[in-house]
Amino acid sequence: MATRSTIMDTNSFRAEHADGLDAATRQLTDKRSKVLGESYRLFYRKPVHLVRGEGQYLWDAAGNKYLDVYNNVASIGHCHPAVIEAVNQQMKMLNTHTRYLHERILDYTEELLATTPDAIDRAMYMCTGSEANDLAIRVARAFSGGTGIIVSQEAYHGTSDLTSGVSPALGSGQPLAATTRLVSPPDAYRVNAPDLGEWFANEIQKQIDDMKAHGIKFAGFLADSIFSSDGVLPNPRGFLQKAVDVVHANGGIFIADEVQPGFGRTGDAFWGFARHGVVPDVVTTGKPMGNGIPVSGLLAKSDVLAAFSDDIPYFNTFGGNPVAMAAAQAVLTVIKEEGLQEHSRVVGAKLLAELQKLMDRHESIGDVRGAGLFIGFELVQDRTSKTPDKALALDLTEKLRDHHVLTSVAGPHGNVLKLRPPLAFQESDIDWLVGALDKSLTELGR
């Protein structure tokens, strides 16, 4: 029997759903299978055929309007005019690689580094988060002299050879590297510990000790600071500090994967790691950086990066190209000028409060937690045992799709809805989302 991926096969269209499709959708899914092969996955038992986007909304081929509550690629909103204009103007002038001088990459880097702690003072650019995390692992190994990388049990950090080897969320069909160790996630809902930070630090120390027992030298801890693939685990603020201290005490570095919590999404800070008062050795970012234009980055302390960069040249043909930098610069400008970090904090808090009120109406909701516009909505069979209800979560995403709300699931049990809309999401959209959840759970009898 084929293995299933936890991140790719959950909430996905499969062959057994094909008979329930209308003719036009069936034609498209059949063609995809024929020309794109079998590795790709579509969301939903009845896939959505999208043709247009604006802000927090999407439209399908039939003209139906959807509320996007999942997309952090178009982080500041689909088809934002500032990004379109910046890319268009730069494309008309020049697009080439970084082996020629150009002001854009320098101007953007100065602006980006101004958002980080002073100790982080160098930047390198790629096209995808996978590439950024791949390079981060290489930097960790060069700096530490070790090879061992620790990640959380349901982590997702990319699709390259190195990053897929530290991405257990890709499922049992994708083997982890022999030098990878998994640490239990810091789940405040399920872990009964008086000090979650101390508990988590001890879990990391156990894995470092296991590496030593197997002759593996520890290189670093790679984590998304909101632990999104583990089910969105944002609190309590500050719990990461003790874990980072353990990492440093054992000669490793902390790599903060900010693809999901970065760029103002959590509301509390521009970067997700800043909610915990820690200073990473390396920061990686990707999707939200360019609002749909492929661009990613690695930011680092100069002494940490030097262990790699002083000896090994690095070149990425499209990484840091002027068009990508124009898009990225436009995103930074919009976040500042539109006050999107504060917007995320305020609107996210109101959304969280309304979602938590649903717990009074639906016993199937075990926990609602989040930071800014990044919320985990956990479904259980009963609140006493906290038994995860994956089947309900999957049925709920399908019902929400029928109510024209798009999202998906996360967590090791696939029972947490990951509510992560573009930052263009407004207070006026809360009723649509909360109302759709309420109706859908009622229709499902839960």
From TrEMBL:
What keywords would UniProt list here?
Aminotransferase, Pyridoxal phosphate, Transferase
PROSITE patterns, sorted: AA_TRANSFER_CLASS_3
Protein origin, superkingdom? Bacteria
> What cofactors does this protein use?
pyridoxal 5'-phosphate
User: What CDD domains does this protein's entry cite?
Assistant: OAT_like
Q: Name one Pfam family in it.
A: Aminotran_3
RNA-binding as UniProt keyword = no
Name of the protein this chain belongs to: Aspartate aminotransferase family protein
What GO molecular function terms would the record report? transaminase activity
Q: Which InterPro entries match?
A: Aminotrans_3, Aminotrans_3_PPA_site, PyrdxlP-dep_Trfase, PyrdxlP-dep_Trfase_major, PyrdxlP-dep_Trfase_small
Instruction: Tell me its family.
Output: Belongs to the class-III pyridoxal-phosphate-dependent aminotransferase family.
* UniProt cross-references to Gene3D superfamilies, sorted A to Z: Aspartate Aminotransferase, domain 1 (3.90.1150.10), Type I PLP-dependent aspartate aminotransferase-like (Major domain) (3.40.640.10)
PANTHER family named in the record: ALANINE--GLYOXYLATE AMINOTRANSFERASE 2-LIKE, PTHR45688
